Amino acid sequence: MSRNEMSDSDFVSFQDKFYDLLQKFGVSEINCEHKRWDDICEIRNKVVEFIEEQNYLQIHELPED
User: Fold this and answer.
1) Where are the domains of the chain?
2) pLDDT tens for residues 11-58?
3) Which residues make Cβ contacts (< 8 Å) with residue 25, sequence separation at least 6?
4) Percent composition of the chain: helix, strand, coil (DSSP 3-state, to 5)
5) What three-state secondary structure class fits 24?
6) Does the structure show a pLDDT above 90 at 62?
């Protein structure tokens, strides 16, 4: 499956909001020294890929007859 990659500025904005959301729901301050940094980055990347795939599909959907 293909996807439409986010621009750098969209990615940075998403990342900031993603970290804010995690912190809002109790995750301790997120930075590269967080004990689960690798897990957080992996989850963030999976969410970004999902968004990019969904955007691709919306753009490339065949029109209904």
Assistant:
1) 8-60
2) 999 999 999 999 999 999 999 999 999 999 999 999 999 999 998 888
3) none
4) 65, 0, 35
5) helix
6) no
**Cα angle value 17/47/43 (rounded, 5°):** 90
Under 8 Å between Cβ of 4 and 48? no
First vs last C-alpha separation in the chain: 24
- Quote the tokens at residue 36: 């689960």
Q: What is the pLDDT of residue 4?
A: 79
Q: Are 18 and 48 in contact (CB under 8 A)?
A: no
